[in-house]
Amino acid sequence: VLPLTSSCSRCFPHIVNLACKAVLAAITNLDLAREPSNEHEHRSFLDAVDRDPIATLHAFVRSVHSSPLQRQSFAQLTKQFFGHEIQPIHDVDTRWSSTFLMIDRAIFLQKAIVKMTEGFPELQKYALSVDDWNALITASEVLEIPHAFQQVLSAEKTPSLGKALLAFAALERQLTTLKKTRHTAASIIDAGLCKLAEYQERIKDVPAYLMAMGKIMCGNYMYQGLIPSSAGPRREIALV
Fold it and tell me: How do the domains of the chain map onto residue ranges?
């Protein structure tokens, strides 16, 4: 009789999302992505923006989104800098990769954000230093890797169960490689790797994953005879 855990097939994109949250928890307050339920909580949120650049950026985006005047002024600035109106992205706790998308958009809009914080006295408390922007760039580089895996696997029309363990290994390799070049981000990358390792330990003995992988391998062997050996590396990629 198989143990109960052997019948549990976990959603890989969801596990990657948990790894993203583990990374974010190492560098920011995840509760800041939740809408304040009352005025007291709103004030507490404002008091928290000096904790880290992601929290500060989140506060800036929330302020711009909630003020028609600021939103219009920001749109005019982006039109001046980029030729068309662009708004910052507001991250939401229940939306996958929303923090990465917020940071990525903010980096692109850096000139407009700096100008905006200089032009509005009430936004000056959200001004980001050069070190803050560098930290956001590093965070973006870390979060971009799991985001890419989420996008590819969650967008597939065919089941991806057989690719889950392979994707785990590939994701770990990408994060480990980044850790070698981004030494300052080693601790936050390790947070994501630890979360991935935790779930990998849970699913490695689930028969469904191995059976799905076996089916893919059998299909590759059947397909192998259709690809000429002269194809070289392209042949190897086609058989993965």
Answer: 12-203, 205-240
